[in-house]
Design a protein that fits this description.
This protein is mostly helical. It contains 9 helices and no strands. The mean pLDDT is 90.
C-alpha cells in the first residue's frame, strides 16, 4: 500500500473535523463540558493544520473551486456573521471572569485569602513547604512574580489539600 499525501491530508481533515464538530455541539449543549473543552481546543488547532494540508494537497482543484460564485457568496456570508460576533465581543468590555481573577491576584493578600476561604497561616505554610520565596509580598501576583511563576500556581498551592 503506497502512502499518498493527498489521501492522508483529506483523511486527517475529515476525521478531525468530525471530532471538532461533535465536541463543539457537546460544548454548546453543556455535555461533559470540562472533559470535552480541552479536546475541542487542541483538536481545533490540529484541524487548522489538517485543513492547510488538505488545501495544499488539493490546491489545483481548490484553486478552481475558490473562483466559483457559490464559494464567494458563502465566504461573504461567513465573513459577515463572523464580523458580527467579533464586533459584539469587542463591545462587551471586560470579561467578568477575567475581572474576578485579576482582582484576586492583585488585591491585598488578606482580602484574596478571605475570598478564597483560606486561612493565612495555612496558606503561608503551604507556600513555604513548596519552597516559595517573597512571602512578604502584598499580593498573590507579587508572590508569583518573586518566584517566576504564574499566580495560578500560587493559588493552586494554597488551595491544595
Amino acid at each position: 500500500m503506497k502512502f499518498k499525501f493527498k489521501d492522508m491530508a483529506t483523511s486527517l481533515a475529515t476525521l478531525i473535523f468530525l471530532v471538532v464538530g461533535i465536541s463543539g455541539v457537546m460544548l454548546y449543549f453543556k455535555i461533559f463540558n470540562s472533559q470535552v473543552k480541552e479536546l475541542h481546543e487542541i483538536l481545533g488547532l490540529a484541524f487548522v493544520a489538517a485543513a492547510i494540508l488538505h488545501v495544499t494537497a488539493n490546491w489545483k482543484a481548490m484553486k478552481k473551486y475558490f473562483t466559483k460564485k457559490i464559494f464567494i457568496s458563502a465566504s461573504i456570508v461567513v465573513a459577515i456573521i463572523s464580523g458580527i460576533f467579533v464586533s459584539q465581543s469587542l463591545n462587551r468590555g471586560d470579561d467578568p471572569k477575567g475581572m474576578v481573577l485579576r482582582s484576586i491576584i492583585s488585591a491585598p493578600i488578606d482580602a484574596s485569602l478571605k475570598v478564597l476561604n483560606i486561612e493565612k497561616d495555612e496558606a503561608m505554610k503551604k507556600l513555604q513547604n513548596a519552597k516559595m520565596t517573597g512571602l512578604d509580598g502584598k499580593t498573590i501576583g507579587a508572590i508569583a512574580k518573586a518566584n517566576g511563576d504564574s499566580p495560578f500556581k500560587v493559588i493552586a498551592i494554597i488551595s491544595s489539600n
